[in-house]
Design brief:
By secondary structure, the chain is mainly β. Helices cover about 0% and strands about 50% of the residues. The protein is built from no helices and eleven strands. Strands 2, 4, 5, 6, 9, 10 and 11 form a seven-stranded mixed sheet that branches. Strands 1-3-8-7 form a four-stranded antiparallel sheet, with no helix packed on it. A hairpin with a 6-residue loop joins strand 5 and strand 6. The protein is globular. The N and C termini lie far apart (about 40 Å).
Amino acid sequence: QVHLVESGGGLVQPGGSLRLSCAASGFDFSSAGMSWYRQAPGKERELVAVINTFGDGTYYADSVKGRFTISRDNAKSTMYLQMNSLKPDDTAVYYCTGRNAWGQGTLVTVST
């Protein structure tokens, strides 16, 4: 059974940083493209970043380009999202997805 668990969310001040993790199990993680999405209060879920199986191909939404970095460690079956220069508009529940499965989400709040 595919299982994805996000962690690393929390409260951070504008300009701060957080690193999210997504631990995967139940499938061959190294053969799956993975993505991060987010959903802000009252808004639709939106794509944040995508990473290919080898980790050498990535895509970012314009809103996070240059501030967020997606990465993966296939040996640990874990994907990461390093978020720097955080803004209040980055406040959202962040979800990881892959193999048609979704995690439960982790809340990121950017506020003073």
